Protein backbone atom coordinates (compact mmCIF):
# COMPACT_ATOMS: atom_id res chain seq x y z
CA UNK A 1 0.00 0.00 0.00
CA UNK A 2 1.57 3.28 -1.13
CA UNK A 3 1.02 6.43 0.91
CA UNK A 4 1.54 10.04 -0.17
CA UNK A 5 3.19 12.68 2.00
CA UNK A 6 2.39 16.20 0.84
CA UNK A 7 5.07 18.57 2.03
CA UNK A 8 7.37 15.60 2.13
CA UNK A 9 10.40 17.73 1.30
CA UNK A 10 10.21 19.39 4.74
CA UNK A 11 11.90 17.99 7.87
CA UNK A 12 8.84 16.21 9.28
CA UNK A 13 7.77 14.86 5.91
CA UNK A 14 11.27 13.54 5.23
CA UNK A 15 11.43 11.84 8.60
CA UNK A 16 8.07 10.17 8.13
CA UNK A 17 9.03 9.05 4.64
CA UNK A 18 12.18 7.41 6.00
CA UNK A 19 10.33 5.70 8.81
CA UNK A 20 7.45 4.37 6.71
CA UNK A 21 9.69 3.25 3.86
CA UNK A 22 11.96 1.42 6.27
CA UNK A 23 8.87 -0.29 7.72
CA UNK A 24 7.99 -1.55 4.23
CA UNK A 25 5.36 0.99 3.13
CA UNK A 26 6.15 2.66 -0.23
CA UNK A 27 6.05 6.45 0.01
CA UNK A 28 5.39 9.10 -2.64
CA UNK A 29 6.57 12.60 -1.73
CA UNK A 30 4.35 15.35 -3.10
CA UNK A 31 5.60 18.85 -3.83
CA UNK A 32 4.78 21.78 -6.08
CA UNK A 33 8.16 21.04 -7.71
CA UNK A 34 8.20 17.44 -8.96
CA UNK A 35 11.94 17.51 -9.71
CA UNK A 36 12.71 18.67 -6.17
CA UNK A 37 10.45 15.96 -4.74
CA UNK A 38 12.27 13.26 -6.73
CA UNK A 39 15.64 14.72 -5.75
CA UNK A 40 14.76 14.54 -2.05
CA UNK A 41 13.40 11.01 -2.58
CA UNK A 42 16.72 9.96 -4.10
CA UNK A 43 18.61 11.41 -1.12
CA UNK A 44 16.35 9.58 1.34
CA UNK A 45 16.70 6.29 -0.51
CA UNK A 46 20.48 6.57 -0.10
CA UNK A 47 19.93 6.80 3.67
CA UNK A 48 17.97 3.58 3.40
CA UNK A 49 21.04 1.79 2.02
CA UNK A 50 20.11 2.44 -1.56
CA UNK A 51 16.54 1.20 -1.33
CA UNK A 52 13.87 2.51 -3.65
CA UNK A 53 10.94 2.76 -1.27
CA UNK A 54 10.51 6.51 -1.74
CA UNK A 55 9.63 8.37 -4.94
CA UNK A 56 8.77 12.00 -5.67
CA UNK A 57 6.05 13.55 -7.79
CA UNK A 58 4.12 16.76 -8.30
CA UNK A 59 1.46 17.37 -5.67
CA UNK A 60 -1.56 16.04 -7.54
CA UNK A 61 0.34 13.13 -9.04
CA UNK A 62 1.42 12.07 -5.54
CA UNK A 63 -2.18 12.07 -4.31
CA UNK A 64 -3.27 10.03 -7.33
CA UNK A 65 -0.49 7.50 -6.63
CA UNK A 66 -1.60 6.91 -3.03
CA UNK A 67 -3.71 3.80 -2.58
CA UNK A 68 -5.71 5.20 0.33
CA UNK A 69 -3.70 7.34 2.77
CA UNK A 70 -2.56 10.92 2.11
CA UNK A 71 -0.53 12.67 4.81
CA UNK A 72 -0.66 16.47 4.86
CA UNK A 73 2.63 17.80 6.25
CA UNK A 74 2.82 21.32 4.84
CA UNK A 75 3.34 24.50 6.90
CA UNK A 76 0.04 25.81 8.23
CA UNK A 77 0.24 28.86 5.95
CA UNK A 78 -0.17 26.45 2.99
CA UNK A 79 -2.74 24.17 4.67
CA UNK A 80 -5.99 25.34 3.09
CA UNK A 81 -4.53 26.16 -0.32
CA UNK A 82 -2.99 22.70 -0.59
CA UNK A 83 -6.30 21.05 0.26
CA UNK A 84 -8.13 23.18 -2.29
CA UNK A 85 -5.62 22.06 -4.93
CA UNK A 86 -6.20 18.34 -4.31
CA UNK A 87 -9.73 18.02 -2.92
CA UNK A 88 -11.15 16.59 -6.15
CA UNK A 89 -8.66 13.70 -5.90
CA UNK A 90 -9.45 12.75 -2.29
CA UNK A 91 -12.80 10.88 -2.54
CA UNK A 92 -12.12 7.28 -1.56
CA UNK A 93 -8.99 8.25 0.39
CA UNK A 94 -8.21 9.21 4.00
CA UNK A 95 -6.49 12.51 4.73
CA UNK A 96 -4.10 12.34 7.68
CA UNK A 97 -3.59 15.92 8.86
CA UNK A 98 -0.43 16.37 10.93
CA UNK A 99 -0.32 20.17 10.61
CA UNK A 100 -0.12 22.35 13.72
CA UNK A 101 -1.26 26.01 13.44
CA UNK A 102 1.67 27.66 15.19
CA UNK A 103 1.69 31.43 15.66
CA UNK A 104 3.46 33.31 12.88
CA UNK A 105 7.00 34.04 14.03
CA UNK A 106 6.60 32.26 17.37
CA UNK A 107 6.46 28.45 17.34
CA UNK A 108 6.04 28.47 21.12
CA UNK A 109 2.44 29.59 20.68
CA UNK A 110 -0.54 28.10 18.93
CA UNK A 111 -2.84 30.18 16.71
CA UNK A 112 -5.94 28.08 16.10
CA UNK A 113 -8.13 28.82 13.06
CA UNK A 114 -11.79 29.77 13.38
CA UNK A 115 -12.74 26.10 12.90
CA UNK A 116 -10.97 25.28 16.17
CA UNK A 117 -7.99 23.27 14.88
CA UNK A 118 -6.21 22.42 11.65
CA UNK A 119 -7.89 19.00 11.66
CA UNK A 120 -11.36 20.53 11.96
CA UNK A 121 -10.54 23.14 9.32
CA UNK A 122 -9.55 20.37 6.91
CA UNK A 123 -12.74 18.42 7.60
CA UNK A 124 -14.87 21.52 7.09
CA UNK A 125 -13.12 22.34 3.81
CA UNK A 126 -13.31 18.80 2.40
CA UNK A 127 -16.77 17.86 3.66
CA UNK A 128 -17.82 14.87 5.71
CA UNK A 129 -17.61 12.44 2.77
CA UNK A 130 -13.80 12.58 2.95
CA UNK A 131 -12.55 11.35 6.33
CA UNK A 132 -9.92 13.54 7.99
CA UNK A 133 -7.81 12.05 10.77
CA UNK A 134 -5.55 14.20 12.92
CA UNK A 135 -2.34 12.44 14.01
CA UNK A 136 1.44 12.69 14.49
CA UNK A 137 1.22 16.30 15.70
CA UNK A 138 3.59 15.91 18.64
CA UNK A 139 6.46 13.91 17.11
CA UNK A 140 9.75 15.78 16.77
CA UNK A 141 11.04 16.05 13.21
CA UNK A 142 14.59 15.67 14.51
CA UNK A 143 13.63 12.39 16.20
CA UNK A 144 11.96 11.08 13.05
CA UNK A 145 15.10 11.70 11.02
CA UNK A 146 17.39 9.89 13.48
CA UNK A 147 16.84 6.36 12.26
CA UNK A 148 19.25 4.91 14.79
CA UNK A 149 16.93 6.07 17.59
CA UNK A 150 13.40 4.80 18.34
CA UNK A 151 10.53 7.28 18.25
CA UNK A 152 10.29 8.45 21.85
CA UNK A 153 6.58 9.16 22.16
CA UNK A 154 3.06 7.85 21.72
CA UNK A 155 0.69 9.17 19.06
CA UNK A 156 -2.80 10.54 19.71
CA UNK A 157 -5.22 10.05 16.81
CA UNK A 158 -8.52 11.90 16.43
CA UNK A 159 -11.28 12.23 13.86
CA UNK A 160 -14.99 11.72 13.31
CA UNK A 161 -14.78 8.50 11.27
CA UNK A 162 -13.98 5.49 13.47
CA UNK A 163 -13.08 3.14 10.62
CA UNK A 164 -10.66 5.72 9.18
CA UNK A 165 -9.06 6.25 12.58
CA UNK A 166 -8.54 2.53 13.04
CA UNK A 167 -6.79 2.30 9.66
CA UNK A 168 -4.54 5.24 10.54
CA UNK A 169 -3.70 3.73 13.93
CA UNK A 170 -2.73 0.49 12.20
CA UNK A 171 -0.50 2.42 9.79
CA UNK A 172 1.22 4.38 12.56
CA UNK A 173 1.88 1.26 14.59
CA UNK A 174 4.14 0.10 11.74
CA UNK A 175 6.61 2.65 13.14
CA UNK A 176 6.87 0.68 16.42
CA UNK A 177 5.00 3.31 18.41
CA UNK A 178 1.80 3.16 20.42
CA UNK A 179 -1.12 5.00 18.81
CA UNK A 180 -4.39 5.70 20.60
CA UNK A 181 -7.88 6.74 19.54
CA UNK A 182 -8.20 10.14 21.21
CA UNK A 183 -11.77 10.82 20.16
CA UNK A 184 -13.51 13.08 17.64
CA UNK A 185 -11.93 15.80 15.53
CA UNK A 186 -12.81 18.48 18.10
CA UNK A 187 -10.18 16.96 20.39
CA UNK A 188 -7.51 18.05 17.92
CA UNK A 189 -7.77 21.43 19.60
CA UNK A 190 -6.06 19.92 22.63
CA UNK A 191 -3.69 17.60 20.76
CA UNK A 192 -2.39 20.22 18.32
CA UNK A 193 -1.90 22.66 21.21
CA UNK A 194 0.54 20.27 22.90
CA UNK A 195 3.14 20.89 20.18
CA UNK A 196 4.05 24.50 21.09
CA UNK A 197 4.32 23.42 24.73
CA UNK A 198 6.83 20.74 23.75
CA UNK A 199 8.72 23.25 21.60
CA UNK A 200 8.92 25.66 24.54
CA UNK A 201 10.25 22.92 26.83
CA UNK A 202 12.71 21.63 24.27
CA UNK A 203 14.35 25.02 23.73
CA UNK A 204 14.39 26.02 27.38
CA UNK A 205 17.85 26.30 28.93
CA UNK A 206 16.32 25.14 32.21
CA UNK A 207 15.18 21.80 30.78
CA UNK A 208 17.93 19.15 30.45
CA UNK A 209 16.68 17.54 27.21
CA UNK A 210 15.53 18.30 23.68
CA UNK A 211 13.12 16.71 21.20
CA UNK A 212 10.84 15.39 23.96
CA UNK A 213 7.50 13.74 23.25
CA UNK A 214 4.52 12.60 25.29
CA UNK A 215 3.69 9.16 26.63
CA UNK A 216 0.45 7.62 27.91
CA UNK A 217 1.30 5.68 31.07
CA UNK A 218 -0.73 2.93 32.69
CA UNK A 219 -1.44 3.22 36.44
CA UNK A 220 1.48 1.93 38.47
CA UNK A 221 3.84 1.95 35.49
UniProtKB/TrEMBL annotation:
Record-linked InterPro entries: NAD(P)-bd_dom_sf, NpdG, P5C_Rdtase_cat_N, STEAP_metalloreductase
UniProt keyword terms in alphabetical order: Oxidoreductase
GO cellular component: plasma membrane
Domain Pyrroline-5-carboxylate reductase catalytic N-terminal: 3-101
Keyword Oxidoreductase tagged: yes
NCBIfam families from the UniProt entry: npdG (TIGR01915)
Protein name per Swiss-Prot or TrEMBL: Reduced coenzyme F420:NADP oxidoreductase
The species this protein was found in: Billgrantia gudaonensis
Amino acid sequence: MSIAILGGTGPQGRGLALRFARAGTPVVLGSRDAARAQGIADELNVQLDGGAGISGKALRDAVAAADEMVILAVPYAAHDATLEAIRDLLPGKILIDIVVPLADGDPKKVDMPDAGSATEAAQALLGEAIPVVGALHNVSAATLNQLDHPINCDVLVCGNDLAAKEKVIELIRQLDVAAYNAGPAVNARCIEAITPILIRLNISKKVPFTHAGIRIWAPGA
